[in-house]
């Protein structure tokens, strides 16, 4: 369904919008415009908030926009802190760790292989520290001992701006930040999507061609542990871009978006993301989220071009190797 129309419209073009809330700008007789806001009742009438039915001439449409209710739009509705928490929970579900321990409102995630998302503590409670069950120094001590027990680096996934105090505390105790991540969101009804120039393959299981393009086989178990769709774009029977779509709590989480090195700057990234957005729509999911390193300027520019916006950020905090438990806390 198109959500933005310009110029005179036919009955066929307006039919899919009947029942939706719309804002219509009409050409007026004096060379100006008049606006109508309400629910489209037919191809030439709108029902306003007070119940009045207003008729209009579709040939006089200058512009029409579908109005999306805030609570159903990605990145809108509830207070920011609640939206961030809900989105972080949804994203975590789609990247399940080997083991998960609930420590107050902290999730202690431990897995084989290298993946900060599956090997880090995710605080989900209220500021300032995310509601661990112990005083902050004791809680961090416990976390450190758990990861060292598994011969893993202790890492925190610190969501900003909610847990700025926790981030400051860890920084002062010598926890380094390898990089920062932007969480970007978009609504499929508002994104600019591109048609694929090749064939889109959508599988429910990993394939060799999908894996070979993205190259990292260390997280295969994690990728298949949560129900997902693995999409790939083929040009002349060659896989040029791939991505993974997972649906959780009303969100379409896009991960593992890769474009083959020799195929970059040809629009194939935009095409695979567009295919993932349409696949989400087919599952009646309009809210999309993805994550990108803050220094990946080319990817950020692409996502912004398509209509994605930064929702929040998070930072990994890793305990320096030369720190012991007493020093870090």
TrEMBL record:
Domain spans labelled N-acetyltransferase: 186-326
InterPro entries: Acyl_CoA_acyltransferase (IPR016181), GNAT_dom (IPR000182), Rv0428c-like_C (IPR056935)
GO molecular function per UniProt: acyltransferase activity, transferring groups other than amino-acyl groups
Pfam families: Rv0428c_C
Entry-linked Gene3D superfamilies: 3.40.630.30
SUPFAM superfamilies membership: Acyl-CoA N-acyltransferases (Nat) (SSF55729)
Parts forming coiled coils: none
Protein name: Unannotated protein
């Amino acid at each position: 369904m198109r959500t933005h129309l310009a110029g005179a419209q036919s009955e066929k073009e307006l039919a899919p919008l009947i029942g939706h809330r719309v804002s219509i700008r009409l050409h007026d007789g004096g060379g100006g415009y008049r606006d109508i806001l309400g629910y489209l009742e037919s191809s030439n009438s709108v029902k306003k908030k007070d119940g009045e039915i207003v008729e209009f001439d579709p040939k006089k449409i200058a512009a029409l926009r579908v109005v999306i209710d805030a609570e159903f739009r990605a990145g809108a509705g509830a207070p920011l802190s609640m939206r961030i928490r809900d989105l972080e929970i949804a994203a975590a579900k789609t990247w399940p760790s080997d083991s998960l321990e609930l420590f107050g409102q902290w999730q202690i995630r431990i897995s084989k292989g290298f993946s900060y998302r599956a090997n880090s503590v995710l605080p989900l409670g209220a500021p300032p520290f995310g509601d661990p069950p112990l005083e902050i120094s004791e809680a961090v001590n416990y976390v450190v001992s758990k990861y060292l027990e598994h011969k893993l680096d202790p890492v925190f996934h610190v969501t900003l701006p909610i847990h700025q105090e926790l981030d400051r505390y860890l920084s002062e105790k010598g926890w380094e930040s390898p990089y920062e991540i932007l969480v970007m969101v978009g609504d499929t009804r508002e994104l600019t999507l591109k048609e694929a120039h090749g064939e889109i393959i959508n599988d429910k299981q990993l394939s060799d061609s999908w894996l070979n393009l993205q190259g990292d086989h260390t997280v295969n178990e994690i990728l298949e542990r949560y129900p997902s769709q693995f999409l790939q774009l083929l040009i002349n029977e060659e896989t040029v871009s791939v991505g993974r779509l997972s649906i959780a709590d009303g969100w379409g989480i896009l991960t593992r978006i890769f474009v083959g090195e020799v195929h970059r700057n040809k629009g194939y990234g935009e095409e695979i993301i567009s295919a993932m957005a349409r696949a989400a729509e087919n599952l009646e999911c309009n809210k999309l989220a993805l994550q990108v390193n803050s220094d990946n300027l080319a990817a950020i520019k692409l996502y912004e071009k398509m209509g994605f916006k930064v929702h929040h950020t998070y930072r990994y905090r890793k305990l320096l190797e030369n720190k012991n438990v007493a020093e870090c806390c």
